Amino acid sequence: MSKVICDYLIYHEHNPRRALELCAEATREANFKDWWWKARLGRCYYRLGLYRDAEKQLSSSLQDQNMAETVLELSKVYIRLDQPNAALAVLEKANKQTTGETRLMLGIARIHEMLYAIEPSVSSYKMVLAFDASNVEGLSSLAANHFYSYQPEISLRYYRRLLQMGVVGPEIWNNVGLCCFFSSQFDLALNCFGRALQLADDIADIWYNIGNCDLAYQSFKVALSVDGEHAESLCNLGVLELQSRNTEAAQAIFNSAQSKAPHLFQPFFNGALLAYKLGNIQDSHPDPLNQLRIQSIEKLCINSNSRQLSEIDLPSETSRGAKCALAWPAILLRVP
């Protein structure tokens, strides 16, 4: 009964302080030998932000009983302590001792992905699918990896597999539509985007992705009407205004995108490039820090062969073969 009350306090009442008192008393009654109460003590400490105490209790619990759930909680503690290598070591050690536990493999894959170690992450996801061929996270992660590796046809296979399994939602149809579009199956792409909009018409990213087709201008407008803070749509709308030779409107849109998304480089690069080509040197380089940043971005964009750069022609009096950076051309939505 006390274990049920403990879980009730943690998960339903969200009162880890009171649950901690119960766990401490129960641990004393068990002579500090019950792994379950030690694990709950570690969970309470984790929720209270006492990560070192949580590490101590969870490690003690693992010494008494090796449980996958406890290992996962200990890895979360190390992640919060900014020690991903320690989390990987704990998960890999437990994975060797417990064969076929997909939760541990998924934890390893997530940490590798967080560290941008793509190859080990992909290997871990493939190992997950070797033990559980219907694992949704493994399928969707491999599909996203193939898509961003310019292999939309292979990515489409994984998403079709998810559809066959009954995973239906706006995210999956959006991703299938993107794969069809970049596989040159334009008729199927528009139908998939239509399905996505039927299921959830309030996601600006879907309209943004439709903007890569012939309905670009109107789709970006719809995306902004749904989410006025969608800076990627603003940036690409500014590029379209430039292509229509509406330089003043483009400049205003770039300025708006800069204020809404200071973490994106495309609005700053486009705005600085437009100001420079129009002769507004003081606007293109407002301070030495921005000047250094713009110069580095310009070198990066000129040397890059990525498809995110699109040639644009400014009006004849300022045309110098400039390049304007589009925002990322596709946003894959995470499959829940």
Poorly predicted runs: 302-322
Number of strands: 2
Tell me roughly what share of residues is in helical segments: over 70%
Range of strand content = under 5%
Taking the alpha carbons of the first and last residues, their distance comes to: 34 Å
Major β-sheet annotation: 2 strands, antiparallel
Cα-atom Rg, whole angstroms? 26 Å
Estimate the mean pLDDT confidence: 81
| Helix/strand class | mainly alpha
CATH superfamily of the domain at 230-303: Tetratricopeptide repeat domain
The spatial strand order of the largest sheet comes to 1-2
Which fold name fills CATH's third level, the topology of the domain at 230-303? Serine Threonine Protein Phosphatase 5, Tetratricopeptide repeat
Report the CATH C-level class of the domain at 230-303. Mainly Alpha
What is the 3D form?
Answer: elongated
- CATH level-two architecture of the domain at 230-303: Alpha Horseshoe
Q: How many separate helices?
A: 19
